[in-house]
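PROTEIN DATA CARD
Card holder: FtsX-like permease family protein
Chain length: 410
Origin: Nibribacter ruber
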Amino acid sequence: MNLLENAKEGFRSIQGNMLRTVLTALIVSIGIMSLVGILTAIEGIKYSVSNTFANLGANSFDIEQKEENNRQGGRQSKTYPPITEFQAKQYQNLMQDKARVSLSTNVSWNAVVKAGNIKTNPNMTIIGGDENYMVNENYDLERGRPFSNIELEGGAPVAVIGQEIAEKLFPKQNPIGKSLLAMGRRFKVVGQIKSEGSGMGGGGSNRLIIIPLEAATQIPTQTPLTFQIKSAILGSTSLAYAIEEATGIMRKVRQDKLGQEDSFEISRSDSAAQTLDKITGYLRTGGFLIGFITLLGASIGLMNIMMVSVTERTREIGVRKALGATIQQIRRQFLIEAIVICLLGGVAGIILGVLMGNGISMLIGQGEFFVPWLWMMVGMAICVSVGLVSGYYPAYKASKLDPIESLRYE
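Structure generated from the sequence above:
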């Protein structure tokens, strides 16, 4: 009896016990559906969130003044000089062919903004930014326009404001073209930033006033301004390579001596994406374990069904052995039958799992239909493995039956 005949015999046996086969295959399909479905949902959500991170600047990094070290053991803390406008622009010129660089400086974290007799709470942030600042920070305008080149170069008294400021100072009005007073200077509103929520409890862009960088440098402050630099990688250059190159350029600009630690800090904007990778790794492991446990129950059920099948077909096995079937042929027949049942359940489980996983990911995210080819292949491999493991002992038992005793079995 060759392999093809074994497969045909397996299908005939399955057709003869259709209800039992369907129930067994259903157990397998539920296990595969849970495995593939959970993993598909995780991958789909990860794909959607990763695209969101990419759109929000996950391919960028920030350079800021290094924070002072805390005193430990009576040692004096080290003070790092602020990043000056000259150093920031030097870096921008050296990196302009490798990244889209934006410069900004924080004028005030706790400014009071006025318009006529109305004023805000003292928790508004005033930022001076260049032509790339809003693009790199992914700020979209709800109304108005960004700064023109003439306004940026001349340091014109214009401002782009957040939604909370607009609603507070200009209730039920269009703020574009209106004037406000901040840091003792009068600014004309030319744009309003689209709301982005609470922003980690600090108001996000809703409490933000952006003015031209040149205008920010003309406002007197109690302490010297320090400049922040954001570099967005646009080409195929890897983020890690770009950071290494930026570190070398910034050390040269800051004149950090050989062997001296960096006098600035570089923070990657993809830290959230890296955290997401770790979380999805844990979820993927958990999902795999849940699916594996379900499949373990399915394999036990399949083994039980195959044992019953061997008992019911004892006389048939005796006839086959009497006609010359070998131990290997009998064993192969029952193994193929177990694998066929698992594959039928596996195919149904994979289809249902892909649909279920994509349904979950689309409810949570905005991703496209995701086909997890890897997990589909893993699911099929697991089906074959479950069939082999569950069918081996019944097949072994069937192959060892005595033909004479089998023919006498009623």
